[in-house]
Amino acid sequence: MTTKTILIINGPNLNMLGTREPEIYGSQTLHDIENLCRETAGAHDITIDFRQSNHEGEIIDWIQKAGGKYAAIGINAAGYTHTSVAIHDALKLCGLPIAEIHLSEPKEREEFRHFSYIAPVAKIHVSGKGAASYSEAIEKLAELL
Ligand code: DHK
Q1: Residue of the nearest CA to atom 1 in ligand 1?
Q2: pLDDT digit string, tens, across residues 51-85
């Protein structure tokens, strides 16, 4: 049996975790979250390709190349969640199971965060649990795969 790999994509400003509004996003760095993801996935014999970009086009390129290479995608599109039709389209096209991940609970924050372009193309949605949103999303993807 070949090992499955999940691509975890992090959008803009998530490289600033640890110092970025810790009262909202928690005090863990993105590196801490990456370690948590690897640990969670490892328990299911799944490997993780963990990435972050501040650039919409780069994220779209990664999604376009994901088909056939990865078993699933976990994505925290960060601010692009609420703006990007293009990321929505790329996720729809790639045909992989998608988990939408958020550290905070966007629906309980400013109104402009209430709508998600990722939600309609995702099978799994986990938000509001801090870093544990990532591990829960990986657990749910592992069940699905
Ligand atoms: C992260 C961001 O950067 C925000 O733009 C989203 C999301 C929420 C999160 O909770 O992980 O609105």
Answers
A1: 78
A2: 999 999 999 999 999 999 999 999 999 999 999 99
